[in-house]
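User: As part of a screening pipeline, I want to sanity-check one entry by hand. Below is the sequence and the SMILES for nicotinamide-adenine-dinucleotide. Please return the complex as structure tokens so I can compare it with the automated output.
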Amino acid sequence: MKKFSIVIAGGGSTYTPGIVMMLLDNLDRFPIKTLKLYDNDEERQAALGKALDIVLKEKAPDIEFSYTTDPEEAFTNVDFCFAHIRTGKYKMRELDEKIPLKHGVVGQETCGPGGIAYGLRSIGDIIELIDIMEKYSPDCWMLNYSNPAAIVAEACRILRPNSRVLNICDMPVGTLRRMSQIIGKTPEDLDVRYFGLNHFGWWTSVKDKEGHEYLPEIRDYVSKHGYLTQIEVDTQHMDQSWQETHKKAKDLLAVEPRFLPNTYLKYYLYPDYVVKVEGSDPDYTRANEVMDGREKEVFSAAKTIVEKGTSEGSEFSIGSHATFIVDLARAIAFNTHERMVMIVENNGAIANFDDNAVVEVPCIVSSDGPEPLSQGNIPEFERALMYQQVTVEKLAVQAYIEGSYQKLWQALILSKTIPSAKVAKEILDDLIEANKEYWPELT
Ligand SMILES: NC(=O)c1ccc[n+]([C@@H]2O[C@H](COP(=O)([O-])OP(=O)(O)OC[C@H]3O[C@@H](n4cnc5c(N)ncnc54)[C@H](O)[C@@H]3O)[C@@H](O)[C@H]2O)c1
Ligand SMILES: O=P(O)(O)OC[C@H]1O[C@H](O[C@H]2[C@H](O)[C@@H](O)[C@@H](O)O[C@@H]2CO)[C@H](O)[C@@H](O)[C@@H]1O
Ligand SMILES: [Mn+2]
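Assistant: Here is the complex for your manual check:
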């Protein structure tokens, strides 16, 4: 079997060890020749790189492993770039969450004003990464997890329409894992129909390979418990705030009882609840929870491995969300025609939605990339919500490209998370100040 060369961009990410461990667990399905880490923060990446060097020497000495901050070295002779960068790091995520909250508005990584702010920081760095990849390895595919995926994907569609970049999200697979537990199956047993935008969608069917429809059974469970399941499905997302999110799916289902909701809809359908009842603490948000939790755990595990000179007894855990990346890379590398929920240009997949909208739908993935599967017409309620949100995403990208204050203000006004043009302006002005180092100048 051919061996592949991979660069992980955002090598210092908290997800890097989980992805590397998962790659090692799948070497029989996806053999690796070279594995490189690339980051623009040398110190952060080296902390993980040194530990992973030890892990790889112990577990897969044949793989050529290295880490670098040099783009040419990182991107030369690679088949795949797995990208998960965070422009501005957790320091800026914290501000994305805290600034809106100060104005009584949802403060979230990818939704509402925080997501828009993050989007305007991410676009430039992602486009730069694509250009570097194309310069040094023109046939390379980028599997891009970097958030906010909806805005990043729209920017790629406009600015690099022919590039081999696939923007992806693990939420659909993560939630399918929960659904499969509810009905005593595994995700591999199930095929779904799904429509929406990234972090904004609904499942309309969950069937096994014999064609049995499980939607009613899952809906019945979700109407009582949300997606909360008894088994620990995911070591990284069991914090209280995520439990609340999975539970809240119950109330999302009440709004549209026919379909199963993506949990991120809570920020748009229950923003008042999120801010006032759920206990969004303006001084301690998810960014703080992640810095005190996942980031500390991952970096202290790395430190222990380096100090002991071995990974025995203090191993990194396998990233549960990371299997999606291997399945996707395999689909491209081996033309597997796997069915996966992907972020793509609509082009008729949702019949009564704009062709040029970036949507999230099931696709068949082959060596040519994803081919969207038709989801037919969607109901008026969902269509209207989606149209409002996709316009937010389009305006944000246009604002970035044109340097337009007006368009960014309009994007914020249109976000269902924001109550008025006045509040939108106040938040925008605070975000501009906080993002001076990262955003284009807006006039
Ligand atoms: N799409 C999804 O469903 C999904 C799932 C999980 C995580 N993510 C995303 O993955 C990313 C990483 O998340 P994290 O919590 O581990 O963040 P993190 O801050 O731990 O890691 C991000 C890394 O990217 C690096 N970086 C920033 N700009 C860069 C650039 N221009 N070039 C190279 N490296 C750069 C940083 O130095 C940092 O080491 C985020 O964008 C997050 O939203 C997406
Ligand atoms: O708040 P964070 O940084 O812990 O997580 C934010 C990411 O959450 C989603 O991904 C989850 C997924 O929902 C869960 O099921 C599991 O598989 O883990 C994923 C993260 O590894 C979301 O899709 C991402 O876009 C967010 O970045
Ligand atoms: Mn996601």
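Points to compare against the pipeline: The longest helix spans residues 112-136. The two ends are 54 Å apart (CA to CA).
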